[in-house]
Amino acid sequence: MKKTRTLVLLSVVLAIIVITLGAYTRLTHAGLGCPDWPGCYGHLDVPKTAQEIERAEQAFPERPVETQKAWNEMIHRYFAGTLGLFIATIFIIGLRMRNQGMPLYLPLALLATVTFQAALGMWTVTLKLMPVIVMAHLLGGFITLCLLYLLYLRLTPYTIESGNKNLRQYSIYGVIGIVILASQIALGGWTSSNYAALACTELPICQSGWQQQLTFENSFDLVPPKRDTYEFGFLNHAERVTIHAMHRIGAIVTSVYLIWLALFILSRTSSRFFQRNALAVLAILAIQVSLGVSNIVFNLPLPVAVAHNVVAALLMLSLITLTYSLRRRVKE
After folding, report:
1. Is 25:76 a contact under the CB 8 Å cutoff?
2. DSSP bridge partners of 160
3. Per-position DSSP letters for 133-154, written without gaps between them
4. 214 and 128, same structural domain?
5. pLDDT by residue (tens digit) across 170-229?
6. What secondary structure does DSSP assign to 160-171, as a single string?
7. 260 with 243: CB under 8 angstroms?
8. How far is CA 172 from CA 183, 245, 326, in A?
9. Cα–Cα dist 232/29, whole Å
10. Which of 19, 71, 122, 135 could crosslink 189 through cysteines, CB 3.0-4.6 Å?
11. 224-251 pLDDT, tens digit each
């Protein structure tokens, strides 16, 4: 079981790397760096020689080869494919060890999720960055990471010393926090996939007059009008302002709730374990808010924008740790 737990932990780390690479690929506008799937211009890697590039551009005349963007996309695919193999291995182990206390449903859910995630990766390319597919692909990465981390927690034996035996009843507040944070991550994915990250350039919500620009008629339509490509977006400025403003408001709601949750837990327990977990949520939230503000102040610098995605994942993992631990049996 220890070796399996190590494999799951490695998969958690790999999933974080995949999320990082996915954000980098999206933010460098490399989502269509390879116009086909799963290869790149018919290759298992990127066309390199002049002859290969010429043949590639003849096969895909609408998409000239941009080597750097193509490598960004393919490196992301390599890591995602490796993660898929890790998860398939975990499922096989779960199947073989189901009578020895190894969870089976979590590995099964992981296998189903990563399989659908592969389909979303294909549709991201074939449907030319349709926003709902791009957002779903981002959420699929987060779901994969969360399921892997939950499996790791399930495989980790630990007993929690608590100064209050009734903490279990407060786990519902953690679940609510997870739902709120997941909704905010989805809003972030919708903002990014519709190229609305720079629609608002002032704090705290948007520039002057943003309330008059709000329009919900087309801003959140999951099925957009058919287009040859959705790269660089198709919504007008007011619709992008609406999406961005909702993401900002969502950030405020999420921050207020998570601050309340952490302070609530701190006030209800003398357990150092739960105090550390609650403080971790506060610390990661502070970093995430700082990154969000920096994105606006410094005009979406690439390292900060990528870190904003990664820290969102870490914030979710810290919240899962807190909520899952509240559900565990405490030492009498």
Report:
1. yes
2. 330
3. HHHHHHHHHHHHHHHHHHHHHH
4. no
5. 899 999 999 999 999 999 999 999 999 999 999 999 999 999 999 999 999 999 999 999
6. EE-S-TTGGGGH
7. no
8. 17, 29, 9
9. 8
10. 135
11. 999 999 999 999 999 999 999 999 999 9
- One-letter identity of residue 187: L
- pLDDT at position 165: 59
One domain, residues 196 and 148: no
Helices then strands, each counted (H, E), the chain: 10, 2
DSSP for 115-128 reads: HHHHHHHHHHHHTT
Contact 196, 244 (CB under 8 A): yes
Which of helix, strand or coil describes residue 40?
strand
Element (H, E) at 68: helix 67-96
Q: Which two tokens stand for residue 60?
A: 């895909």
Q: What H or E segment, with its residue span, contains residue 331?
A: strand 330-331
- Check whether residue 124 and residue 269 sit in a common domain: no
Integer CA distances (angstroms), 133 to 34, 232, 233, in order: 17, 15, 13
Residue 57 bears catalytic tag: no
CB 304 within 8 A of CB 295: yes
- Between helices 171-193 and 131-154, what is the axis angle to 10°? 150
**Cα separation, 53 vs 186, whole angstroms:** 37
Q: What is the per-residue pLDDT across 144-177, written as a single tens digit (0 to 9) for each?
A: 999 999 999 999 887 666 545 577 888 999 999 9
The answer to whether residues 197 and 262 belong to one domain is yes
User: Are 182 and 316 within 8 A, CB to CB?
Assistant: yes
* Given the residues 54, 57, 66, 73, the one annotated as active site: 73
Same domain, 206 and 258: yes
Give the structural domain span for 232: 162-332
The C-alpha atoms of residue 325 and residue 332 are separated, in whole angstroms, by 15
Find tokens 């720079």 and name the residue: 198
Total domains, the chain: 2
Q: Which residues contact 58 (CB under 8 A, 6 or more apart)?
A: none
